[in-house]
Amino acid sequence: MNFNNIVAKFLKSDLMGRSLKVLIIKISGVLLLFLLSLFLTNYYSPKVVGQFDFVRSVLMIIGGLSILGTNQSIIYYSGFFKSQNTIGSLKKTYFKMLALIVLVSCVVLLLNLLTPDKIINNLFNKEEAAFLVDKVVYTISLYAVTFLNIDMLRAMNKTILSELFRNIFRYTPFFILAIYLVYTSNEAYLINAYLLSFSCLAIASFILIYLNISKPEFQTKTSELTYKQIFLKSYPMAISALSYFLMQSVDILLLAKYSTFEQVAYYAVAVKLATITSLGLLSVNIIIAPKIAEMYTNGNNEKLKPLLRNSNRLILILSFPVIALLAFFSDWILNLFGNDYVVAQSALLILLFGQFFNSLCGPLGVYMNMTGKQNKLQRMLIFGLLLNVILNIIFIPKYGMIGAASSTALSMIVWKSMATIITYRQDKVKTFIS
Question: What is the pTM assigned to this prediction?
């Protein structure tokens, strides 16, 4: 089958249609984030922007821990319950997950209160580090509930609504507040506005879930899960997610330690631009995750393999043009954020190469999570994280942003290669492009 026939087949498929709808929302979210970033870099000082990106990174890490993998396992359980005709079990499972999140958030808060500020300040070599971390910890439950709710909506087949929250509503309250702060000359409260915006998201998403979960289809026969069962299924996903978030954030955190918040601001723009290229992968993953869980549970490998093969090709078709565009116009695009941000061009090109390899590997992570291989994925991610940290510690002090980008790209290539080979040898399933 030639390339034109493959494209024609994709355009007629349900996978392509649903993926494109999600992709359109994600592209809209990227444009909104792009405008937000342009606004921040042009109206706020690089130091404030750097502190904001530092807080975002800390929030991703602590938030990834507080969510406890429930946002991933709720997707697994939706496919599992559907295959067992007990979708009503999703309701009780969701409320138990909320209780687990509140408990973990309280533990994180307690640990933070018991940790002297001096330790945190020394860890990041910044006097204001502990103050910034405190702000994150006090709002962590709102962040965790928001992202559980987003994936709960997806588990309830409200994919479009879920993606609207993830990509549009997620940034809108903060963008409005950021504009208001500039207008009132209160730029110093930018981080407060960002963290408190999650209160709006958590409340709004919970109301929508409550209204939908009261419908008849969720009152069907149930098979109640215990907290222990939920925890044992979720925590490997939590470790994997935490490792993944750390890999996305450790370069920024270590750059903050060894450099200035201004350098963090420049590099963070390169990271955000490179992340845009994963939209194709994320869009396809969102659609196929419940399908993989359902097909694997039912032992339907004859449909699973074509699903993965078509997904792999679609991911590359959606990702490569964006990667090429960003690479070719990298200097011009970075200049939009301010003349000083062009210094991140080399770092951006390195990160784009890493993302290109990521797209070639296909839906590897979601396949492992949805087929009971959470522990193997966890080990791979931990290995990749350790390699990432070691490389960043070695290269950032000497090469700055280029060292951070190289460490991130190389560690991604290594762990994804290992995970892809292991998965293929075990299941004879190609999660990579073929």
Answer: 0.75
